[in-house]
Design goal:
Blueprint: H1 2-24, E1 29-30, H2 33-43, E2 49-50, H3 57-62, E3 70-74, H4 83-91, E4 101-105, H5 111-120, E5 127-130, H6 135-144, E6 147-150, E7 154-155, H7 159-166, E8 171-174, E9 178-179, H8 181-184, E10 192-194, H9 197-209, H10 211-227, H11 230-242
Parallel strand pairs: 1-2, 3-4, 3-6, 4-5, 6-8, 7-9, 8-10
Helix pairs in contact: 4-9, 7-10
Length: 249
């Protein structure tokens, strides 16, 4: 999708470079089994090691803030992230949840279209856009939200889901063929998965209305985050690089 998202000139160069690097690299590490399998299928890579992304659980725990009636998205505002689906799902929530606001943090070419969509959906007054936030401020937003949603159709891992989990915020992700999110989110245990717009609306309503469910998802999410804490991930990276032979002098 390089050309689709970066234009013909930049996209074509990126596409060529990606394939050249895949062909000459002697050692490859993927951030998820999904990405490793894609690398094998698309580029013919073999023996791709998997070392997942890590998260600083301590830093996210320190970013605690009073919970607000807020749903959060963090990421680029580009087409395959499907923020349009999130806005429509938010607009479709029951009237009893009309007190909630949706905060969208990120930059991208979809910004103008998404603002217009919020207006057409009748929720413009309850949707807030922020281009970017500092690390501490972003952690506070995670911690202050009642739910985090990643509606993306294409993810190699889904680090923002892990950051939300580490902040004690229940998550929802789109279960899509080109996304690794389903490998990180176990539906009903550490988050909810949705396959389409109606499923996302229903999942969001469940988390916002069902406090026992939300608490269970938070506990599951915290466990997943602890499994991906940097104290766990860094030794795996060190072990991998220790196995790589020294290059000849």
């Amino acid at each position: 999708r390089w050309i689709e998202h970066r234009g013909v000139a930049v996209g074509a160069v990126a596409w060529i470079c990606e394939r050249m690097v895949a062909a000459i690299a002697g050692h490859n590490v993927a951030i998820s089994r999904f990405t490793a399998d894609r690398a094998a299928a698309v580029f013919g890579m073999k023996d791709v090691a998997v070392v997942p992304c890590g998260v600083d659980c301590g830093a996210h725990a320190a970013g605690s803030a009073p919970r607000m009636d807020q749903v959060l998205y963090v990421g680029r505002l580009i087409k395959f992230k499907r923020i349009d689906m999130l806005i429509e799902a938010f607009a479709g929530l029951p009237a009893g949840l009309s007190r909630f606001r949706l905060k969208i943090v990120g930059k991208g070419y979809e910004r103008e279209r998404l603002v217009a969509l919020a207006g057409r959906a009748g929720v413009a007054q309850r949707v807030d856009f922020a281009d970017s936030l500092g690390e501490e401020e972003l952690r506070r937003e995670y911690a202050a939200s009642k739910a985090f949603v990643l509606p993306s159709e294409q993810e190699g891992f889904g680090l923002v889901l892990l950051e939300a989990m580490a902040s004690g915020t229940p998550v929802i992700a789109l279960d899509a063929p080109n996304s690794a999110a389903a490998g990180l989110v176990c539906d009903g245990r550490n988050g909810l998965l949705a396959k389409d717009l109606s499923g996302m609306t229903a999942a969001l309503a469940r988390i916002l209305e069902d406090e026992p469910l939300a608490r269970n998802l938070v506990e599951g999410g915290l466990q997943t985050a602890r499994e991906h804490d940097w104290d766990t991930i860094v030794p795996k990276l060190e072990e991998y690089y220790a196995r790589i032979p020294e290059p000849p002098v």
